[in-house]
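User: Can you write out an input/output pair for a complex, sequences first and structure second?

Assistant: Here is one pair. Inputs:
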Amino acid sequence: MKRHRSTIIAAGAVLALTSGSALAAPKCGLNNGTKATGQPIKVGAVVGQTGPDDFSASAKAAKAYFTCVNANGGINGRPIEYLIQDDQWNPEVAGLVAAKLVKDEKVVALVASGSFVEMGVNAKLYAAEDVMSMAAACAVSECFESKNIVSTNEGPLPSSVGAAQWAVTKLGSKNVICIGLNIPSVGQYSCGWTEKYMQSKGLSGSSILMDPASADMNSAVLRAVASGADTVLVNLPAGMAAGFLKVAQEQGIRDNFKWISSTPLYDKAIPGILGDHWAGVMHVNIELTPIEGKGPDATNWREVLDKYGTAQDKRDTFSQSGYLSARFFVDAMLKLDPAKIDRKSVSEAIRAIKNEKSDLLCGPYYVGDGDRHMPNHANMMVQIAKDGFKVVGECTGVDSAYLDPIIAQEKRLGIGK
Amino acid sequence: MTNFEISSAKVEATAGLSVRRHVMSAAILGVLILLSAVANGLWLKILTSVAIYTLTAASIALLYRRLGLVSLAQVAMMGIGGWVTLRLAHGTGLPFEMNVLCGGLSAGLVGMVLSYPALRMRGLYLALVTLMAAGGFAVLINVIQFPNGGDGFTGFAVRSVAYMPRPLIAQSDPAYLRYCAGVTALGFLLIRWHETTRPGRAWAMIRRSEACAISAGVNVTLYKVWGLALSGFLAGIAGGLLAGNLQLLDARSFPAGESVLIFALTIVGGAWHWFGAILTAILYRLLPAFLNDIGVNGNAAYIIFGGALIHALMSAPTGLAGQLSDAAMAIRRRLKRGRT
């Protein structure tokens, strides 16, 4: 009897351990634990990896997810061959690598691209070749004003306006100065619409736009001081934003302003890089939900990266966004006959995506056949704390006239009902 | 051998050289046309870039070879040509050729303005003036931006870019490569025509000695201005073609450093031979793209460029083209000797 009892206890312990490890294992695609061995499906991504900043977190997360999918049955037996190209923040190179992916490699779609240049250069190519780009780290207006590009992240416009909107409501900001990059469809686009938002509320807004190739942080900080603003909106890629804040810290101007930022500063490594100086002071708008989220997608994203990514892969909003673009793409592909997957059927399947839900997003995700796409336009606010981030603002829809055509499109498609 | 025999032998040799030059340029054009039919999407784009920057390199080599002038503003000249081309394309709807021609003429005009200091300076000082001009252009273009279909003088609006139409006969990438190769060939003919007529002779005298040129009745001011205007015109045309390639232009493509780099590569490619410009463009655009394509970071090309420049300055003053030309001549001589 004693022996039986110990056998039962041992079996129970093994079962508990196995089920525990099964719970910790990421879930991807068919999730059947069988390696996909069929004919590969080529999928591409263009990222700005080398240049003023590394903007490749989205594609790295998507790569980890696709590796996980391939180890778990693939797309009904067919693995995804994921081709990532670096545009080096150079428009000419962006054109070259996109031509290689779309025309030579004949990818069926682009997933989780992240760039400051490629979408502007290649939107026409994607439309001409009718290939869909489910981007994840979009920064330029063309991302949100093109028929064949849909991004899971919001881009700098809703993120900047969302930050300003929160600062006006919660911090009583009256005059916001936006620090951005002098890239027409990035800086002027997002800071410009933030100024319009402030004006629509009878308040003041202005911008300082820096040349990305020779960004002079000292000069930008001094100009911000001279602007007469009461709130500084840092609207720069993470590396540059950290540089700007370091200079502001050296100048000792922290207490003269209220501080807000768009999403790029929401990176797990940032509180450590900035130190305690900005804890409790800097408020960051996040385009997706917090990186420490407990929902199924937030948990799965971290587990996928831990198991199939590398320790160096960033754990930030764009990584979440890349994971989510890849998941929505795989879910759409799994509905197709694997023998009939080509660019045409894939583009149709992507356009048919509607009312997808995720705990990583404030609202539903959809694509549709409109001439522009911005499914994600509600965001949250967090505050930099000593050891991470603290949520200070729940999901809120962005208040901007820019979104009028998007809202009209959602009504037509019956989104969110 | 009498003087007459020597000069007639020279004439024959020059005629032979000229025939070889035409055969070779026709062969290069033929190869490009062939490649336009078989190259894939990536290589079509790369070869189009090579064709365009060949014209820019030729404009740099023209100034250096004929007048001994160093211009570090040729990529900025391309920017000026591209800006005017885009502005006219969005604002007037004129045919592509007219827009590019106006772009070239505008850059030529700026070249004439730049030639004012060139009348007084040479060497390092002139190079610095042109570099300052290129830096000034980079700052200016970052402020006004390239036209994207907006209204007003700048033609820029905060909105998604409107793409500039390509020429009617060259809508597709292969056709556009052939078009660019054709325009570059015309540019070479224009340079050749200048070199073999009165301006070429005047430039040759100015390069030897301005005092001699003046004493021989050459209008130094006129021909220096002419040379800089022609060089600016060619670079401006290249800028217009570049605008047509992407159907837009971005201010970040025209930093002053690019003008310095392409000048250095013109020395490496060889300013003294007409096909040196082609080698320059291959180094400037094809090599980094090739490295990228095989998985090596394209920036590694800068290391190669540095090594090649040191090599050119130390042991190959006539550049790669000069070395190739010498090698070809040595082989021909050996073959001739073998026949006799």
